[in-house]
Amino acid sequence: MAKEPLRVLVTGAAGQIGYALVPMVARGAMLGPDQPVILHMLDIAPAAEALNGVKMELVDAAFPLLKGVVATTDVVEACTGVNVAVMVGGFPRKEGMERKDVMSKNVSIYKSQASALEKHAAPNCKVLVVANPANTNALILKEFAPSIPQKNITCLTRLDHNRALGQVSERLKVQVADVKNVIIWGNHSSTQYPDVNHASVKTSSGAKPVRELVANDEWLKGEFITTLQQRGAAIIKARKFSSALSAASSACDHIRDWVLGTPEGSWVSMGVYSDGSYHVPAGLIYSFPVTCKNEEWSIVQGLSIDEFSRKKLDATAQELSEEKSLAYSCLQ
Ligand code: NAD
Ligand code: LMR
């Protein structure tokens, strides 16, 4: 029997990520090839005409899974009945700007959209915040939507996770699909800690640790980490716009694995509400390694954390605590 359509909200849908993301959702990249969808697209009034153009293109593309499109500048209409909300709308970072510079513009948007989601989304709506500062916007959304279960509010660090898989694959000249279990800890920012201590590569003679195959700790503790920490800025420098196709694709990966589950023996990185695991202060949205089953994520427990990693985990937690204070001061 055909499945009932699920409603997927994309905010900022007339923007760059939105334009890359909505066709992916309509093709089944987010919820699976047999899951019909109704797209809800929200943008602000100055972008209404462009948003309507995106709607026209979605109709023209004749996606078989796409059962309807709501294109609106009304946040209540946009949020009504949605099962998945991908929050992309906001003010993007431009060349030369730090993520903190976009804080005040974006946290007030997330405060007001929290209430609309809380009141009008479907029960158990899953929320993914993409717009920067992604972790802190997600935290503000959580705090101002207290009736949404905190486990349902997450932020995107899957792009960083995928970037780490890509860097390892390039370095070792192996298929990216054969690399697994990298971890992004912390903030989606230049303090994030990409960790390969538990990562492996599938080889003809079984799984081998990435650290052993790379055999160059200087690279793993240096250039590998800084490349990932600076990748967003490098893309802005090259394109003059922030990453869009990779962000959209990673947003699909994040929701797909959350809803459909992670493969046995693999984990992914998600920004989730900290419960104090790995001595990360509770009350932050922090990127952890997670597995997903039955539409729920769980933090992978019991991984060893060496002294080098401990410092990195703490530094990115410290930045998130500072962002949290700054966000609250912007809202006063
Ligand atoms: P963009 O400027 O092209 O698009 C943003 C869209 O949001 C615009 O169409 C704008 O009109 C709309 N918008 C602004 N205020 C809004 C509001 N209140 N409600 C609804 N829509 C609103 O930017 P983009 O390149 O698509 O990037 C979007 C966000 O994603 C940025 O904050 C960017 O920094 C962030 N980003 C995050 C990641 C990640 O991995 N977490 C990766 C790339 C980009
Ligand atoms: C990215 O990682 O590509 C984006 O978050 C861009 C940014 O603002 O860092």
Report on this structure:
The protein has 2 domains: 6-155, Rossmann fold (3-Layer(aba) Sandwich), CATH 3.40.50.720; 158-324, L-2-Hydroxyisocaproate Dehydrogenase, Chain A, domain 2 (Alpha-Beta Complex), CATH 3.90.110.10. The longest helix has 25 residues, at 307-331. It contains 12 helices and 14 strands. With 332 residues, the protein is α/β, with parallel strands linked by helices. Helices cover 42% and strands 20% of the residues. The chain has helices spanning 16-26, 48-61, 75-79, 103-120, 134-143, 158-172, 210-214, 217-221, 223-229, 231-239, 245-260, 307-331, and strands spanning 6-11, 37-42, 66-72, 84-87, 126-129, 153-155, 179-180, 183-185, 193-195, 200-203, 206-209, 268-273, 285-293, 296-299. The protein has a 6-stranded parallel beta sheet. Helix 4 (103-120) crosses helix 5, helix 4 (103-120) crosses helix 12 and helix 5 packs across helix 12 (307-331). It binds nicotinamide-adenine-dinucleotide and (2S)-2-hydroxybutanedioic acid. Nicotinamide-adenine-dinucleotide binds next to helix 1. Nicotinamide-adenine-dinucleotide (NAD) is lined by residues 11-12, 14-18, 42-44, 47, 88-90, 92-93, 109, 130-132, 134, 156, 159, 188, 241-244, 247.
